[in-house]
Amino acid sequence: MTIVLAELDQQTQQRVAETRQRVSDLHAELPRNQLVVWTAGNVSERVPGAELFVIKPSGVSYDELAPESMVVCTLDGNKIDDGTPAKLQPSSDTAAHAYVYREMPEVGGVVHTHSTYATAWAARGEEIPCVLTMMGDEFGGPIPVGPFAIIGDDSIGRGIVETLKGSRSRAVLMQNHGPFTIGKDARDAVKAAVMCEEVARTVHIACQLGTPIPIEQGHIDSLYNRYQNVYGQH
């Protein structure tokens, strides 16, 4: 039975509308930070208090995105009757996002990009070593590589969860594909995607110049704890 958005309670409808606005706005950050080209990449966010999430429609230009064109799906990855045209289908990565939400309830946002440097590491099937304090801060260690998987079902989602469960990293480089990032909400996941590309680029350049110096695990732990629990405004 298809869920009809207009038939849900007013509080849920309001939360869906707010989530659509946030997801639409955050998609602008991907081209702004040079993380995507053409229509590649996507942002999704879990709807607070509901078994739903919002994601970008497939193959639609970033310039044409608007809150009302964001697609609403169940945690099984099925589009609900959300007021968009029936022909407007969710991202081809929807099954992967849905699997992450089902298996990692702490995750509120998921982002996928094909950012150049992070994807280059993924093409080599090589993790990004933790040789920058920024990496210790943000990712708590290296950015790992996930298994090769084909788009179309939840195989990519399974690889993401398999790689990130038990890891402090909020980014994974899916082999031969590109980076996926997670966060407490979509904004947090977008930040992780921006930082993932930044460290991928910097470490790549460092490798061209010589051999990067690893950071000791004790220092990584200290950096991560400070950044996650002390840094910024609370």
From TrEMBL:
Any coiled-coil regions, as ranges: none
Listed EC numbers: 5.1.3.4
Any one GO molecular function term: aldehyde-lyase activity
Co-factor requirement: Zn(2+)
GO cellular component, one term: cytosol
One of the GO BP terms on file: pentose catabolic process
Domain Class II aldolase/adducin N-terminal: 21-204
Name the UniProt record assigns to this protein: L-ribulose-5-phosphate 4-epimerase
One Pfam match: Aldolase_II
